[in-house]
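This protein record is not my work; I was only asked to verify it. Where you disagree with what is written, explain briefly why. This is what I was given:
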Amino acid sequence: VRPIISVTSGAANRSTSRHLLSEMQRVVLALLALFGGASAWTPVSRRAALSKAFGAAGAAAAVVAAPGTASAVGTCKKDSNNCIAGSFKAPSSAEAGAQLKSVLDAYPQAGQADVDGGGWQFVSESDSAYKLEFKSSGKGNMAKFFNGGKPFIDDLEIDLAGDTANFKSASRVGDSDFGVNKARMSYIAKELRAKGWDAKI
């Protein structure tokens, strides 16, 4: 009797294992389909993942609701360590736009002070508003260990109203930027001061 019970129990276990494996395969296939077939090890931003999963509207709502999520609009969250916001004042509103644009255009593509080694680009621009994207080199240990060796991305938004430029520079992911956003804005502030601006960080 024991051998029969043992064989029956073993068959049942194998059947259960096959069932669990099949369920796991279906889950993996569903996840791959959800994210467009991307490898599970391919790093994606939280916004991109949410957008694929819930659509643009759902992603926007989820990002707003997520605690600690940085946005390049408005002010930084209180006690934030991955964001810096403030304002610079030009000596004259007539020259403010041209001076600000020239400083932004001259920001080194190779980065400076060990930040922004992956370059930068304008995302959108007008006479009174600029949105820029900055990338880390992706070579540091933080990028290697926590972002698959891909660059971290920061967003800078600047709105110009008369002689005043309001700005916010924020990291897309992470609770701390290790001073990167401050280093970036300190460089821009220094260049603006050379043109007579009141620009302090």
